[in-house]
Design brief:
Chain lengths: 134, 360
């Protein structure tokens, strides 16, 4: 039950940080992913592409990670379990562009659709088309 | 495992200091052995505090136990990863995973057991009297305190419809259990005071998002069953879709149509979907502990096995179907420890016609 996270920085007119997830995103590692993205944001990353093409499974805690990642990339205050945190103030139906997804496998796509979190993201079929679009 | 004393390339006490006294973390150092015993399944990266501590300086020590690591996987996982990483670089020790069996571990086990008992008291183990229908349920808490709950009750309004709630708080541990304990009566009250299931979920979401500000999400499904007609109205906030097995033998139906889970957005805008239960028809509600269950090779139970289990008991009572699904999950997991709560609720309209209308 492990996940490998690879981080690449793609230079261009708009630098994009690609975070590739390989394995299973679940309760054992979702906080680690949030921490990693916070580090990237603190290091100056402003555009994130999550490459999900090797992510075989996403538990509900993965959804918490995705939601937190969007918050972080929006420059909103970091998650503080003591203080609590408010909902993302993006109206339902409106997608943000700081964090985009590519290549979700059917199992992950299903979870995103079922929980409604797909409406938070632009989802690209693969990395090449995602980078071209961004 | 080498017996000779090793020098670690960092200050162990300094490394551990930031983690001491944190909720759910109990660290004991027993020298000397060169063995690290950890109880966590986390694979988190290095946290800043940890890497700074690692750079702090040398100290000789040996055996390290980290208990309660599962209580906060992010934090203790970061610690353990840093520690194991530092030792691996030094080549002085191999990480070993060991069962938790000393006094402090027992204390934590006792706390968890207490939490599970408390949690169990939140799920509806006594089915309400529902004339004309069979109600059966199965609830099994994971070893860690999980976040599943369900609730079945008759509404105090015309026709006394049956209300069904099944929900899963994301994450695990005490935080999930506390949010669950808070959400269950909240949902119950919202259902009592709103027109229908979708409005009840909307109200619950608003309270959790705006007034209580939680750091967790809840997938929740509310259903209302009108007993005389068999009309079942469902509103689904990111939860697993209910299954319907008809008495006429047609393929098992999946009640699709949902909105986002509770806690992530200011509004949900959930569509209300409905179906009619004819005599002999059965509806099954479940949590992802069923479909996400793993066998010893890591394979997931998935929906097709769930469908097969329901199919195998089709025509039987609600209890038969619940037993078939719970049994299939159990056999599938084998010796694997369940990672998540498993909750199954089945409601079947009985074949014999029963007048369920309240008197007066």
């Amino acid at each position: 039950m492990a996940m490998e996270t690879t981080i690449e920085r793609i230079e261009g007119p708009v630098p994009v940080t690609v975070v590739s997830l390989d394995g299973e995103l679940d309760a054992s590692n979702f906080e680690a992913l949030i921490d990693a993205v916070r580090g990237l944001y603190d290091g100056g990353a402003r555009r994130l592409l999550l490459d999900l093409s090797a992510l075989r499974f996403m538990a509900s805690s993965g959804l918490v990670a995705l939601h937190s990642i969007v918050r972080i990339m929006h420059g909103e205050p970091p998650l503080d379990p003591e203080a609590g945190w408010s909902a993302l103030h993006t109206p339902v139906g409106q997608t943000q562009t700081e964090v985009q997804l590519c290549g979700p496998l059917p199992a992950v796509e299903r979870v995103l659709a079922r929980t409604g979190l797909d409406r938070m993201f632009v989802v690209h079929p693969d990395r090449v088309s995602a980078l071209a679009a961004i | 495992m080498p017996d000779e004393k090793r020098t670690m390339p960092f200050d162990l006490e300094a490394l551990i200091a930031p983690f001491r006294g944190l909720p759910g973390v109990d660290i004991a150092i027993e020298a000397p052995a060169g063995v690290i015993l950890v109880s966590t399944s986390s694979d988190a990266p290095t946290a800043d505090a940890v890497s700074q501590a690692i750079e702090a300086g040398p100290l000789a020590s040996g055996r390290i136990r980290v208990w309660g690591a599962r209580a906060d996987p992010g934090l203790t996982g970061a610690f353990l990863t840093a520690l194991v990483g530092a030792l691996a670089r030094d080549g002085s020790a191999d990480p070993v995973t060991a069962p938790r069996h000393d006094a402090s571990a027992r204390r934590i086990d006792d706390e968890l057991a207490h939490g599970r008992r408390l949690q169990r008291s939140f799920v509806s183990l006594v089915a309400p009297d529902v004339p004309g229908y069979e109600v059966a349920s199965h609830y099994e808490a994971a070893r860690e305190v999980g976040g599943d709950f369900f609730d079945l009750f008759r509404l105090r309004r015309r026709g006394r419809p049956l209300s069904v709630v099944i929900a899963d708080v994301t994450g695990k541990g005490i935080a999930a259990a506390l949010l669950m304990a808070f959400s269950r009566p909240l949902l119950h009250a919202a259902i009592d005071h709103t027109k229908g299931p979708a409005a009840a979920l909307e109200r619950t979401n608003r309270i959790l998002v705006e007034e209580r500000r939680s750091s967790l999400f809840i997938t929740a499904l509310c259903a209302r069953l009108d007993l005389p007609s068999g009309r079942l109205a469902v509103a689904n906030a990111g939860h697993e879709p209910p299954l319907v097995a008809r008495a006429d033998g047609s393929p098992i139906e999946c009640m699709l149509g949902a909105g986002p889970l509770i806690g992530a957005f200011p509004t949900l805008e959930i569509p209300e979907i409905s179906t009619d239960l004819a005599p002999g028809d059965l509806v099954l509600f479940y949590t992802d502990g069923v479909t996400d269950a793993r066998d010893p090779t890591g394979e997931r139970f998935e929906e097709q096995r769930l469908f097969a289990a329901v199919e195998s008991a089709r025509g039987g009572s609600a209890q038969d179907v619940v037993d078939a699904v719970a049994g299939a999950v159990d056999r599938f997991q084998g010796s694997t420890e369940p990672a998540d709560d498993v909750t199954i609720v089945a409601i079947r309209r009985v074949l014999a016609p029963v007048d369920a209308r309240p008197k007066g």
